[in-house]
Each structure stands twice: as structure tokens, then as C-alpha cells.
């Protein structure tokens, strides 16, 4: 407990035997033993008395324990949980409809297109786009002379 080993205890007993004397040493040992017993008994009585008083206070403090635990729970919440609790009475389903991670877990149009493209690649076909767009044919002028005006952009106009 205090770092005292057997050599120190034997040294203390020898010093006690020399200083006190062999005829009074047993009486001193009994007195020290009685003092230690009285100190332990006083400490145990004080503990029992304090525990009895605090058990009465425990019932009084119980009414404060519930609001304090609610405050501690609110402090541990993140911003999303605090807003949900304040605005929607702990109904997280409303905010989950805006959560992009949960939206992307479900099937989306892009996911369906990627699956279709992957399946067509496995078959050796090229994937078809979802919407066919018609592109206007481009007019090329390969002959000599100025190109016919098409109403569009031409590099001949720049040079």
C-alpha cells in the first residue's frame, strides 16, 4: 500500500523493541491495533450516515435527472437530428426524402440506362440513346468558286 516491504516492517519492529522495550511492546501493539480498529469503525459509520442522507436526496434529485438527461441527449445530437426533433417531432422520414444517398440507393433513370448499356455491351451491340435527336445535315462545298450562302457560319467570310 505505501511501498513498505517485509524488510521495512522487520526494521520498524526491531526499532520498536529497542526503543520501547520488550516488556511494554505487547501493550503498545494492542493500543495501535485498537486505534486502527476505532478509525475503521468511525469511517464505516460516517459512510453509512452519508449514504443514508444522500438516499433521501436521491428521491428529490430524481425529478431533475430526467430533464438533465434530455438536455444531454440534445447536446449529443447532430444538426440533422436536432432540426428533425424541433420541426418534425422526431419524424426523420420527411428529411430522408431529401437525402441524396438514400435517393441514389433506389433505381433512377440513369441507373436503368447504365444497366441497359451494360447488357447491350455484353451482347455486342451499341447502346441506343434514350431519345433520338435529328441533326440537320451539314452542307459541304467541295467545288471551285464561292460557296452558296447557307445563312450559317463560314470561314470564307472571315478571310
Automatic annotation (TrEMBL):
Recorded topology in the membrane: Single-pass membrane protein
Similarity comment: Belongs to the TatB family.
Residue ranges of coiled coil: none
Pfam families, per the entry: TatA_B_E
Biased composition (Basic and acidic residues): 112-143
Molecular functions (GO terms): protein transmembrane transporter activity
Keyword terms of this UniProt record: Cell membrane, Membrane, Protein transport, Translocation, Transmembrane, Transmembrane helix, Transport
Function statement: Part of the twin-arginine translocation (Tat) system that transports large folded proteins containing a characteristic twin-arginine motif in their signal peptide across membranes. Together with TatC, TatB is part of a receptor directly interacting with Tat signal peptides. TatB may form an oligomeric binding site that transiently accommodates folded Tat precursor proteins before their translocation.
Superkingdom, taxonomy of origin: Bacteria
Record's subcellular location: Cell membrane; Membrane
Name recorded for this polypeptide: Sec-independent protein translocase protein TatB
Any GO CC annotation of this UniProt entry: TAT protein transport complex
An annotated GO BP: protein transport by the Tat complex
Lineage of producing organism: Bacteria, Bacillati, Actinomycetota, Actinomycetes, Mycobacteriales
Region (Disordered): 95-159
Quaternary data: The Tat system comprises two distinct complexes: a TatABC complex, containing multiple copies of TatA, TatB and TatC subunits, and a separate TatA complex, containing only TatA subunits. Substrates initially bind to the TatABC complex, which probably triggers association of the separate TatA complex to form the active translocon.
HAMAP family cross-referenced by the UniProt entry: TatB (MF_00237)
Amino acid at each position: 500500500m505505501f511501498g513498505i516491504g517485509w524488510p521495512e516492517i522487520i526494521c520498524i519492529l526491531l526499532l520498536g523493541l529497542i526503543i520501547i522495550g520488550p516488556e511494554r511492546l505487547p501493550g503498545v501493539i494492542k493500543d495501535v491495533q485498537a486505534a486502527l480498529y476505532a478509525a475503521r469503525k468511525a469511517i464505516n459509520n460516517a459512510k453509512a450516515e452519508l449514504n443514508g442522507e444522500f438516499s433521501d436526496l436521491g428521491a428529490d434529485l430524481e425529478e431533475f435527472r430526467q430533464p438533465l438527461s434530455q438536455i444531454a441527449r440534445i447536446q449529443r445530437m447532430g444538426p440533422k437530428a436536432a432540426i428533425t426533433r424541433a420541426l418534425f417531432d422526431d419524424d426523420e422520414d420527411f428529411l430522408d426524402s431529401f437525402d441524396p444517398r438514400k435517393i441514389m440507393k433506389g433505381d433512377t433513370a440513369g441507373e436503368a440506362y447504365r444497366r441497359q448499356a451494360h447488357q447491350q455491351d455484353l451482347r455486342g451491340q451499341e447502346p441506343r440513346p434514350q431519345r433520338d435527336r435529328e441533326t440537320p445535315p451539314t452542307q459541304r462545298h467541295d467545288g471551285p468558286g464561292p460557296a452558296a450562302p447557307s445563312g450559317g457560319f463560314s470561314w470564307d467570310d472571315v478571310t
